[in-house]
Amino acid sequence: MQRKIDFPHTMWISQHTIRFAFREEISQENFQAVQQFNRFLKKHLQQNLIESVASYHTVTAYLKQTKDSIDINFLQKQWLIMQVATKDNEVISRKLQIPICYDEEFALDMDRVMNYTGLSFENIKKIHMSKSYSVYLIGFLPGFPYLGDLDKELFVPRLRKPRSSVSASSVGIGGFQTGIYPLDSPGGWNIIGKTPLNLFDVHGKEIFIFSLGDQVQFYEITKQEFYEIKSKGV
Amino acid sequence: MKPLLIVKKQGVYGSLQDQGRYGYREYGIPLSGPMDKVSFQAAHYILNNEKNQTTFEMFIGGFEFEAIDDGIYVLTGAKCRCLLNGVPIEMWKTFHLTKGDVLSIKSVSHGSVVYLTPKGGFQTESILGSSSCFPLVGEAINEGSILYGKNTGTLHYTRGLYAPFRPIFKSDITVRIFKGPHFELFTEESQQQFLQVAFQFSGGNRMGYYLKGSILKLKKMKDIFSEATQFGTIQVPQNGEPIILMADAQTVGGYPIIATIHEEDLHKVAQMRMFNTIKFVLMEEDVCP
């Protein structure tokens, strides 16, 4: 039998915004709870919900109507019923393989990462590609995925002074996370490679590559392959 | 779609805005939309436009336009000197531009954000369901830019708001707030100062307004997990000086959130300018939803 997830702590942020908070920690357990609760809200608030933003331990819901339109007790009961009734507590996630080129042309901070971790270039790549990461959060920039959890061996603090411009599709690491810049933007993560894929295309058929809960794994490509994929404009 | 105006002089910052881009915050796309919703809505009301038409929002004036075609317009928002071929015209009241006319938005005396809206609204490419400028992707409005309008009917009479109904932008404002999720993490002293001190506007843009007045401190240094923010969120970064997130606010933030401003008071905040002050009053618990 699966462990029950308690109903999150509820707080009104403003007239149309309600925040649901789980335990204050970053963990797979919280992540599952947040994803599940986010889907639960979308289903149960339906017409009243404009949109919701899920984060590490919170789900924030933006509503069309105010206070009186929401019956928290009812939601609590529904949540409980669902917990008992459903066995499908696991997040249904897509598995995505993302090509990355670690060539020194793109891996701007590889020296810094090697110095800090004491690892060789080869080992850093190997560890970075060794597991699949959950998309914990999307934000900061349109479509920017916060991917966790990075192997402890690769923990490197962010740059003291952020770069004024990091080019789109650069892959960085910072703290316990790795991420990909969807657009040219300022940024303070340690850049260790680049993907030839476009993460964000407002005119494309699929606007964003990633959704919350996706499982992302990197695989290495050569510089030549990088430019081949790039020229196809994927 | 027809060309209406050409930008002859570029002011501080101007952007096209409709009500905003809803439904994409979970992907990190800011809501955007007008900074001062009241002046935005008034413009459409005066022109008898549909609610979600597009307007041109300007910071602190400085813009000059030349009419490429005839059209009916209204200017709303911050109080400023507006000239039509060198002759002052009244805000909050419709006026007509004929091909070749020059419209100048001069110095602003009260408030900071001005809206120029044509009958029918401006026409621009809709990205993800909204015409609001998308600062990271869309095109900026510069000198030489052309603003397009729709082929809409005309108004056969002058419409406007009587003076008593027009908002007044004061140099010291008080706004209602809700306690933020991290309010209790601040020292008792900082909590009190936050609710007593008149903070001063020290600059900002469509993403955020910076305040000075008191240094707000946490009881103990603590890492905050990033979570959703919105227009009106008051964050406190390490330097202790609050930032109010505005219409182009990023969707999530990692600084402690001390409070959120009541949505109905946001237009007052939007119109703040240098040296204006702002005070925060906590909503009574029973009024609080």
From TrEMBL, chain A:
Q: What are the residue boundaries of the Carboxyltransferase domain, all occurrences included?
A: 11-210
Q: Which domain of life is it from?
A: Bacteria
| Cross-referenced SMART domains | AHS1 (SM00796)
An MF annotation (GO) of this entry:
5-oxoprolinase (ATP-hydrolyzing) activity
Q: Which UniProt keywords apply?
A: ATP-binding, Hydrolase, Nucleotide-binding
> Where does the record place a coiled coil?
none
- Give the main EC class: hydrolase
Report the EC number(s), separated by commas if there are several: 3.5.2.9
Q: Which PANTHER family match?
A: 5-OXOPROLINASE SUBUNIT B (PTHR34698:SF2)
Q: State the protein's name.
A: 5-oxoprolinase subunit PxpB
| Native source organism of the sequence | Lysinibacillus pakistanensis
Q: What is the lineage of its organism?
A: Bacteria, Bacillati, Bacillota, Bacilli, Bacillales
The gene is: pxpB
Automatic annotation (TrEMBL), chain B:
Which SMART domains did the record assign? AHS2 (SM00797)
The protein's UniProt keywords, in alphabetical order, are: ATP-binding, Hydrolase, Nucleotide-binding
Q: Where is the signal peptide?
A: none
Q: Name the source's superkingdom.
A: Bacteria
Task: Note the InterPro entries from the entry.
Answer: CT_A_B, Cyclophilin-like_dom_sf, PxpC
Single GO molecular-function term? ATP binding
The chain positions of domain Carboxyltransferase read: 26-288
Q: Name one Pfam family in it.
A: CT_A_B
UniProt-listed PANTHER family: 5-OXOPROLINASE SUBUNIT C
User: What name does this protein carry?
Assistant: Biotin-dependent carboxyltransferase family protein
